[in-house]
Amino acid sequence: MGVRRRFEFRGRAAGVAVYDDYAHHPTKVAAQLRAARDVAGAGRVVVAFQPHLYSRTREFAREFGAALGLADEVVVLDVYGAREDPEPGVSGALVAENVPLAPEHVRFVPRWAEVPAVVAGMARSGDLVITVRRDLTEAQRRITDGRRDIAEQRRRVHELRRLV
């Protein structure tokens, strides 16, 4: 991956900055969220995280949860298995359960199709959104587009969720 996808700025809409990172180990996730906190200033940090590999998720669920607890709002997707077969009892929910935030600030959204609308709906002006997933290019575009729609037509947020 090189320097691409290391806290890479992807765009801004409605006062929300969207960054991308490919952190796939708890220490890297924690480092990126600390950096995001510095950049966000008074704004909140909203993270959308997809665990990569079932074996890594099983081994580091507690550590991933602790790292994600550095954010203000957390969305956890299901595991991107890549070359691995699913393991019984190992999912993104395992990570979400280990995030030390109040339940209303942690969401397990297993289906990718729902994530952009969820994140766009929770983000507000001044926030920093960071996506941490194997491939989030399309996600970032949809989150940014979603924020633009919200800024232009606040009364139609429910339609955004339906369209995304």
Task: Please name the defining characteristics of this protein.
164 residues; alpha/beta; Protein-Tyrosine Phosphatase, Chain A; 6-stranded mixed sheet; 40% helix
Describe this structure in words.
The structure is a single chain. The chain has 164 residues and is an alpha/beta fold. The protein has one domain (8-163): Mur ligase, C-terminal domain (Protein-Tyrosine Phosphatase, Chain A, Alpha-Beta Complex). The protein contains six helices and six strands, in the order E-E-H-E-H-E-H-E-H-E-H-H. The protein has helices spanning 26-40, 54-68, 92-96, 115-122, 137-152, 157-163; strands at 8-13, 16-21, 45-49, 73-76, 106-108, 128-132. Strands 1-2-6-3-4-5 form a six-stranded mixed β-sheet, with helices on both faces. The chain starts with 7 loop residues before the first strand and ends with a helix. The relative contact order is 0.22.
Fourth-tier CATH superfamily name: Mur ligase, C-terminal domain
**What is the H/E order?**
EEHEHEHEHEHH
Quantity of strands, as a count: 6
Question: Which architecture does the CATH hierarchy give at level 2?
Answer: Alpha-Beta Complex
Termini gap? 28 Å
Largest beta sheet: what is the strand line-up? Answer: 1-2-6-3-4-5
Shape: globular
| SS-derived structural category | alpha/beta
Quote the beta fraction: 15-25%
